[in-house]
């Protein structure tokens, strides 16, 4: 109920803070027989890790994963997969000047009001560092989906007002911002570096597509596949919106324009983003995720202290100028976990 | 796991199909001592019921609620509140010509693939009729929030490309489309009636604001208030997108523009829509919901049959030309249920 | 979290009080394609209903079930099965003299302390009347298990110190107490009638055996099949103990005596009651359930009032002299629900 | 759903196998502000650890706990408490001769049937080593209950046919078997050592009493406090039965004998074991737990191999002659976790 778990059958539970001993994840409900090794998991973590390029935070964490349980002789055993990542590049002193004030846009005030207390070092549990645990858990899901011929690709389609015009999946990992449009990617990088210089940050949109998803995934009422994907995405730090298929754009369409006609050899269009009545229809699942600009900026800002007084302050820690960049593998992981969960749940539908 | 329940502490579970005996809801985890009577619940249902005006479906259901349990001497007792609504205006024969084909945009195909079987009468469980059960359950939540000085208002802010320019809450229930802009409301009504004549349908956006929500609601990681609201909204029929606060618009902003500055006497802005780090910050909670055009249109359409053959068909049942109109009280109900749930969950945060 | 639901995949949620409008159940997660009709469900309810013989309470409820949803053309559809039973033979005035005192052995005091409030009419939600809803839900589970060649039989093996010496399943429904020993059954009946005359009550033990359960059901750690069965049984009114296989008796055995030796053609013994490490081993599942004497007796008793004063009182309502008799079909239902749930959960164990 | 979690609000999730890298636990839903340090947690683990005396297994694990998260400046922060214990004294080679056969009384066969696969080293996940993770989590619960003046004491009341005659809590930690009867404790020790010599094992009964529990804990229907305690206890390795208060003995009583009379200054008796209608009544909670003899004995035994052939074999690993001894702190931990969970849940009962 405290919300550190996600999924019903394939369930991940995470723990850990940005500046504590480390973070970790338990994957419970993982089917036995999935071939998975530590190198594969690590390769997923490397795509998310800080310090990987000059457009992300310089905090230099290797994010090395330690496998604690649930894998034997190269396969999952059916028992919980436990994984731990130690924090190694911690500079908690950067936060000393922040411990008595509430940074705007951050969870400082809300945690304080909730727990009467907060671990102020690097945002504590509210840090996006927690998402490394999701990526580790998502790697197992990814392998399971691979066995079932489902593939997932996420990528950055906008940074501020700069928007990708193409969806060339082959270039995603060839640029630092994970954009499927090589030309636009360069503009995004330049823009982010300029903002970094300026001490500011910028928002962005991540799109994710799952292909090969069979029809029939998702539960009809509250646990619609679309509803669970929405929750999955909004649970990621800094996410403020989500849409499935045409999303907000379809509110301007007529039914006669928006209905995806079925022909004997398949759908003519995919306005629905692969989900009808909350259940996958065999088309690609298409989701877009709105990510706000990072709240940590190196500009003088006004706020209030724990005692309610006005104060001006400046953030000196290490931060991402565009958190949407590193959100890409996290969005993939959450898509993978949600699909794996519903893939397994679907097995219980027939007598 | 089959997803007919929503909420962790304050939990509703619904049942029922569009053309079966009836529908209903159980509210489990309802605190004792909430003053609530059947007239109040009925008044909420009346705002959602079909046949209430010429811009909604003419199916004429009174949606009369029968209280089965959990209320004694005018107050909730702490035990589950059971409520039943019988279906009375059923015309199942309207669906005879549809039982062997998959209507585009509907859940026909996805239910068929999921269950190997479907109740084709009026979309069965996939019908938005199910949302009446949510409104009944939401009425209890609404009363609880009232006791805690929290108010919720939802309203229609766009129909197709026609968009409200004002937020005058006093006019919402004075027009048939529940728009907070009286002038625009008239245009919306005219447009919807024209489309109805044409046999087509149109999408729309519903906005909902919760005021008086204390800081501290929402769980930090997966059960962020924003994540649970997103799930709540996407679980409503025809919803394809959701955003909190500025939502997708904030992806074009810099951190220095998007951070809501705190002053000793409150926030200067509310870009965040009242939620930071997944937890309410005391500001108004603001959510927008994208609703697609109804899939049922009275135009000739092409599709495939259960046997995979091509077919042209025409829908003759009774339908809403703009489902967003009747979604307004459903969005309110889901907001009320989600907030009540997190209000109660919040009681467990401190030792 | 308020505990009106049981099961993870195959989940029942019940509502209703003894003297309100009625009771009911929603079965969510019910697989599609189970052949089930209202007569079958009613036949199960008839085995539990009050007024069926002179050894049970004379309250004369027909317990007629109304099917609300989830069944179409004689089969479950995969959507929730909703069922309602109206209360018809209510004599609430019998409870007027009890509303300000706490009957010993009853839940009066505990409900009062919990909710600050109670529905004093016939024990309200604490009444065993709630178990009719379980039996209705259990009937669906029973049909599912039948399809999978699993059979369940519960029966009364002791009333006070009178204990069955045989397990002749063919006679269970041929005597009023549902004892598998025809001769002992007569003694039990006589004893119960004598106690009824006296205005007293007596405890008993129900045993239940499930045959045909495949190996592999149950989750390894907290959701052991044995643990979930224990919870299922202890959730039934008046149950104070449970044991699996040899249960308490095995605490006096050595490992060399208690281990069930496996031979190529099967187990030599079944001390374990069909469960090893929390998982079914293919042997019969054997569970025994201890049921206390009904707290409602027609003798003068001492207790305290809501105001804390001492008082002597006498109960005049209609009650069972031996609640263990009518618990038999409830124990069967809870076994059926638990096994169906784990049967479905088991489908998610392999990649 | 895979059952590695326990509790609804105060929820522990465990991972780890007997011979893998280690084991661990996440406590989610832990309220903020509980004073707890690593020494306290370690002291609880020391009571359960192997190698502590000659009546338990000689496997010499220090069971040193590593705190990963959720505690800051000596108090819980409200975020998940993560703890890891590495395995250090592993002798996996002891199990080489067992990997192709199914040890009687063990979970070998059931895991194999469930997962098509098993980690044969020291029983893998089925090892009681998992319970160390529960004890670590339970320590946090214990501190919370202490803050609320609730105390828990478990102790061994029988080993085979040797039964404690007294309940002198002061001697529990002064003998190796944790028996509240010093004289009987000696007999138990001698008997266990004799059996150890013989290569056999023996069962036992653990009793646990919780004092200071306020009235009102437990949910009325399926999540009765008694039902959740039954599940908690049956989830512990080797447990085959549980009873509340008089338990099975009350089945031989009349209602007039079994009802606990309330007087203005309290209950006259406690047959109910502190729970009425599934809800605590303010009296001591009393539970007894039946623990079977360990299945690992050093005698020649017959069984079958993975291929179905008959085989005689001998176990050479290190094992407990009476697992009930080390179950005492585990029973305490499960009682503490269950009570803490319901203590928090109870906060949601009133409007």
Automatic annotation (TrEMBL), chains A, B, C, D:
It is an enzyme of class 4 (lyase). Keywords: Amino-acid biosynthesis, Aromatic amino acid biosynthesis, FAD, Flavoprotein, FMN, Lyase, NADP. Its EC number is 4.2.3.5. Its cofactor is FMNH2. Pathway: Metabolic intermediate biosynthesis; chorismate biosynthesis; chorismate from D-erythrose 4-phosphate and phosphoenolpyruvate: step 7/7. PANTHER family: CHORISMATE SYNTHASE. This is Chorismate synthase.
């Amino acid at each position: 109920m405290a919300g550190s778990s996600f999924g019903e059958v394939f369930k991940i539970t995470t723990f850990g803070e940005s500046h504590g001993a480390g973070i970790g994840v338990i994957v419970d409900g993982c089917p036995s027989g999935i071939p998975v090794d530590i190198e594969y998991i690590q390769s997923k973590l490397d795509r998310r890790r800080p310090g990987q390029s000059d457009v992300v935070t310089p905090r230099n964490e290797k994010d090395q994963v330690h496998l604690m349980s649930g894998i034997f002789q190269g396969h999952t055993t059916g028992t919980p997969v436990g994984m731990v990542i130690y924090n190694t590049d911690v500079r908690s002193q950067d936060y000393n000047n922040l411990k008595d004030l509430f940074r705007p846009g951050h969870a400082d005030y809300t945690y304080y009001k909730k727990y009467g207390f907060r671990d102020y070092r690097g945002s504590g549990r509210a840090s996006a560092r927690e998402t490394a645990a999701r990526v580790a858990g998502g790697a197992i899901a990814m392998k399971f989906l691979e066995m079932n011929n489902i593939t997932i690709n996420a990528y950055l389609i906008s940074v501020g007002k700069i928007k990708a015009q193409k969806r060339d999946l082959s270039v995603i990992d060839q640029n630092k911002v994970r954009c499927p449009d090589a030309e636009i990617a360069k503009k995004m990088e330049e823009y982010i570096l300029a903002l970094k210089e300026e001490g500011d940050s910028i928002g962005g949109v991540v799109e994710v597509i799952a292909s090969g998803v069979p029809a029939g995934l998702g539960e009809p009422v509250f646990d619609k596949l679309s509803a669970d994907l929405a929750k999955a995405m909004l649970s990621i730090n800094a996410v403020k919106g989500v849409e499935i298929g045409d999303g907000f754009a379809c509110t301007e369409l007529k039914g006669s324009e928006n209905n995806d006609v079925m022909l004997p050899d398949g759908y003519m269009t995919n306005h629905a983003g692969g989900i009808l009545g909350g259940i996958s229809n065999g088309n690609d699942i298409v989701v877009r995720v709105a990510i706000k600009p990072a709240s940590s900026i190196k500009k003088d800002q006004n706020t209030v202290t724990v005692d309610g007084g006005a104060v001006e302050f400046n953030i000196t820690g290490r931060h991402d100028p565009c958190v949407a960049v590193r959100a890409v593998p996290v969005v993939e992981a959450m898509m993978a976990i949600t699909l794996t969960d519903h893939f397994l749940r679907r097995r219980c539908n027939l007598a």
